[in-house]
Every structure is written in C-alpha cells, then in structure tokens.
Amino acid sequence: METADVAVIGAGIVGMSTAYALTQAAPGTTVTVLDKEDGPARHQTGRNSGVIHSGIYYRPGSLKARYATQGAAEMVKFCTAHDIPHRVTGKLIVATEREELPRLHALVQRGRENGIPVRELGAAQIEEYEPHVTGLAAIHVGTTGIVDYTAVTRTLARLATETGSARIRYGTQVRAIHRDGAAVIVEPTTGPPVRARAVVNCAGLHSDRIARLTGDAQDVRIVPFRGEYYELVPARRGLVRGLVYPVPDPAFPFLGVHLTLGIDGGVHVGPNAVPALAREGYRRRTVRPRDVADTVTFPGTWRIARKHWRYETSEIHRSLSKRAFTASVRRLLPEVTPDDLTPAPAGVRAQAVLRDGTLVDDFLFAGSGPFVHVLNAPSPAATASLPIGREVARRALAAVGIGAVSSGP
Q1: 102 vs 50, 91, 137, CA distance in Å?
Q2: Does pLDDT of 356 surpass 60?
C-alpha cells in the first residue's frame, strides 16, 4: 500500500494547482495525484477556449470575483516566469440590442466594484478595437488574455513532482474510499491503494460521485452541458483581432456565443450550451446510460428544465442548425457566413445543481474531517486556479494539522 499525507483525485488544472500549492506551503508534505486518464488536463481544462478571464462578470465579494481577478494577474506572472505562451489581448463586451444596454452598464459598475479597469465605448469607437464588429455600445476590458491551459497544467505537475514529495499516477481510476481509523484508504482500479491523512476531490465532471463515495454531497449533482464550438476558416481569421463577447444573460451561468482568438492564431466561435447525454459527451451521439440516469433521476434537473426551457430550446436549435448558429454570431460579426465556420472540438461543463434546481453560481467547496471536495469549478476556474489551489491546499493541510498556506502566490 502506498502512503501519502494528501491524496488528490483529478489531474486537471485545479488538482495540479492544489498539488503544487501543497508542496510549496509545507515542503516535505507527501502528495499522490490520481487520475483515470493517461495524462493531465484531458477534460474541462484542455477543452475550453483558453481565456484568462478578468473577473468582470462575477458578483462582488463572491469567490469567483475574488479568485478570478487575483488569478488573472497571477496567471500572467506565472506564464511569464515559466515561458508559457500567453497574451494579454483585452476584450470587448458588445451590446447589439437596446434592451442589453442596462445590463452592459451594470457590468461597468460591477467591474469597477471588482477593481477592474474598463472603458465604455460608443458604437463608433468599437471599430478602434474590432473593425468588423458592430454594436450599439461596448466596454473594453484590458486585463483579459489568452493562454494554453494544458501547458500551464503540465508545468504545475512538473513543479510539484520536482520537489520529490509529490507523485502522479495516471491511468488510475478511483473505485472506493473508506476510513481506516484516522486514515483514509483510496482504492483505485489499478495499482496499490493509497493510505492518506486527507483526500482532496478535484474530479470535475465526476466530483459529485467521488464525494458520494465518502458519504458527502448527497444534495449536489453534476449536470453536464456540452459546449459546441466552430472556428473561423483560416482565410477569415482576420475578421477578429482579439476577444469579442455578447452581453450575458444574468439568469443563466453561460456567457453566450463569443469570438475568441486562440494562442495558436485560430479563432474559436462559441460555445452554445446543450444538455449532454454523457459526462464526457463531447459528441452528440455519445450516450452513457449511467450518466443519463444520474441526470434524469435527480429532482433538480427537472426544476432547471421547467425554469429555463425557453433558453435551452434556443441552445438546442443552434446546436442542430448551423444557419441558426451563424445568425447568433452575425449579431456581433455581420460579415460571417456559414461557409466561414468549420466544426471544432467540443467541451463539457461540469455544472453543479442543487436538489431544489439551483444552478450553483459560485465555486463550491465542501467536506469535513479528512475530505475536501471541489464540487463546482467551471469557468473561470482555470483563470483562478492558482488561488483556488492555495485555498484547497490550506483546507487539506488544516485537516491533517500540518499548517496553513500563505496568502501570496
């Protein structure tokens, strides 16, 4: 049996940031990271649009607001220090209809409350930043950027293991967790069990299942939403210089179809957000009966459906109709045609839902005793991963009585 002070389940960016933070905060603390895949960042981390979010969208004082604004600055510094490709591009949030103008103004106020510099633009000023984008008004957020989060995750893994006190076991799926006195035994499908003093659950799309193995989080369920992307064909990439977003609908935790310049020079368009029939359902035809059953037997799912059916109907329509998807893009970028868009890999958002149908809007940490669960960490978790990792590490170290993580990077 392998022994460790802390076992971390999940090798996405949050899990690797936690492992790194543990080795930095308490040198000599032994850490074992377990992941069922053959490498890091295989799911949410490696299947997003690579944006370093500013934090402008999030309720002042919330964990998302605090960690995203702090994390954006730290991410740029981290990437600079470790030669990870990144760019601070800035972004536009564009109102294309009059009813969006009050929401745009509210974002300006929220940005200022969160300490984020924003510039308000009239219709004519949008062209200074994006000559092919049209709208009634916009705001420019200068602290937004782009990065390769898979490269960040690999770097965190390297830094953690270089200390000599952390190891990573890929291809190792957790099947059972049980207490043994003061210790916790984590039983994988392959390789030896891990005897740990604390267990950190950063399993993303499967975080609720891992929590239930410990007896926790009975009233939380991960409901997967597939985010489907297109990208601009190479000849049309010049239509976009940076990042262009619509004004989001505050009633739903998704940002709408937007345009994102990638670190590789490509331009992603999307995502929409449609219910997935598998937690790793990156294709429409992927169906996992267990995942479907987990979703449809949870009372919160039906409460979401009753509340948001109109929104989801439009999302599904865009998923099934390229012409409808293009029409949503043309609100921001009128020159786009269906021929300018080619399919790109999809992602799946691990959205935590409560039994009463509440879509969890903030990062959600839970657990007691030797268990720390990260139950809701969708976007902007990659941006916020460094401060999230320190917070999770602090909780894990407190559980084993080793010490506390400093508040700095």
Answers
A1: 29, 19, 11
A2: yes
From the list 3, 5, 67, 1, the residue with the least C-alpha distance to 400 is 5
Residues pairing with 230 in the sheet: 269, 343
Within 15-82, strands assigned E span 31-34, 51-52
Contact of 93 with 255, CB cutoff 8 Å: no
Distance CA 353, CA 240 (A): 35
Flag whether pLDDT at 409 surpasses 60.
Answer: no
Mean pLDDT calculated for residue range 246-265? 85
Encoding tokens for residue 66?
């605090």
200: pLDDT strictly greater than 50:
yes
Model pLDDT, residue 404: 55
Q: Give the angle 17-20-24 at the CA atoms, nearest 5°.
A: 135
Q: Most distant CA pair in the chain: distance in Å?
A: 68
Main-chain phi, psi angles of 141, to 5 degrees: -115, 110
Please state whether 181 falls in left (phi above 0), alpha (psi between -120 and 50) or beta: left
Distance CA 330, CA 247 (A): 14
Has residue 239 got a pLDDT over 90?
A: yes
Give ∠ CA 109-113-119 in degrees, rounded to 5: 50
CA pair distance 246, 23, nearest whole angstrom: 40
For residue 268, give the nearest of 50, 37, 41, 29 by alpha carbon. Answer: 50
Question: 97 near 256, Cβ under 8 Å?
Answer: no
Q: What is the mean pLDDT of residues 65-83?
A: 98
What residues form DSSP beta bridges with 323?
A: none
pLDDT at 374 over 60: yes
Helix axes 322-330 and 299-320, enclosed angle (nearest 10):
90
The runs of H, that is alpha helices, within 174-263 are: 207-213
Dihedral-angle region of residue 194 (phi above 0 means left; psi in -120 to 50 means alpha; beta otherwise): beta
Cα 387 versus chain centre, distance: 14
pLDDT category at 408 given cuts 50, 70, 90 is very low
User: What percent of the chain has pLDDT above 90?
Assistant: 91
